[in-house]
Structures are given as structure tokens and as C-alpha cells.
Amino acid sequence: MGAMESRISAARARANRANNVILASAAALFVAAVVAVRVAHPARTQPATTSPSSGATSASTSSDDFYGESEDGEGGSGSGSIAPSQSAPQLSTGGS
Are strands 49-50 and 57-58 parallel, antiparallel or unpaired? Predict the structure, then answer.
């Protein structure tokens, strides 16, 4: 029976080594995925610039804002606000 126990313990040792290799590979892949996500995050593509006079930061490096409007207010609503307009909504009931 000694040879049978030796074969079983050897198989257990091989299974434990394989399990450890799989665990280490999964951990390395997880860390690599986290690093890749952090590097590719959109917030990191345009670094903020600091104005020397006020210390304020600006995430935009062009003269157009989020809605494609220039800084002088040309185009679109020009209000610079993301809130909806304050005019009353126009409702239709389907009748004429």
C-alpha cells in the first residue's frame, strides 16, 4: 500500500502546484487589467492645465466647450448651462 499512497500524494502535489500556477496567473491578469483600465480612462487623456494667476484648472484644451460652442457664446444656446430651458413645455393631446 505504500506505493499507492506515494502515487496519491504525488498527484496531490501536482494538483496543488497547478492550482497555485492558475491562482498566480489569475492574480497577474487581474492586476494587468486594472492597470490597463486606469491608463486608458478618458480622464487621463487630457491633463488639466493650471492657470498661474488664479490656480483654477481647465480640462478643455480647445476653444470649444462640450456642446461645440465657442467661448464667445456663438452657436447653440450659448448659456453654458446644462440645465433645461425654463420655457413651458408644449404638450399635444393628439386632437385637433
Answer: antiparallel
The residue type at 1: M
Quote the domain boundaries for residue 19.
2-46
Closest CA to 60 of 93, 51, 96: 51
Separation of alpha carbons 59 and 50, rounded Å: 9
* Position 83 in a domain: no
In a domain, 63, yes or no: no
| Residue length of the chain | 96
The pair phi, psi for residue 53, each rounded to 5°, is -85, -45
Which pLDDT value is given to residue 28?
Answer: 98
pTM over 0.70: no
Residue for grid cell 491608463: 39
